[in-house]
Design a protein that fits this description.
single chain; 94 residues; mainly beta; Metal Binding Protein, Guanine Nucleotide Exchange Factor, Chain A; six-stranded antiparallel sheet; globular
Length: 94
């Protein structure tokens, strides 16, 4: 699968975990040059505290388009070291 935004492949992997309609990619499959740290955090009652990245591609920014759980709760341990996408990032099967 691929995660694409602004005509650029952001991540690519066959090792995907799907939870609640979101595809979680291994962190090592993400092109880090497109990630910029964000100060945003949210809390999920069963996954834990999510941290975010902004995407920056060809001078365009997509704020908080990538999220991850650095220390997921026990029920969500499967998504540790993984990221998911939203806000217009297309996740496609290739």
């Amino acid at each position: 699968m691929k995660a694409i935004w602004n005509n650029q492949v952001i991540a690519e992997s066959n090792d995907i975990i799907n939870i609640e309609g979101n595809s979680y990619f291994p962190f090592e499959s993400v092109k880090k040059e497109f990630l910029k740290s964000s100060e945003t955090h949210t809390v999920c009652h069963w996954k834990g505290t999510a941290f975010y990245y902004d995407l920056e591609v060809d001078g365009k920014q997509n704020k908080d388009a990538v999220w991850y759980y650095p220390q997921p709760k026990e029920l969500a341990k499967g998504i540790e070291n993984r990221v998911a996408f939203w806000k217009g990032v297309q996740v496609v099967k290739e």
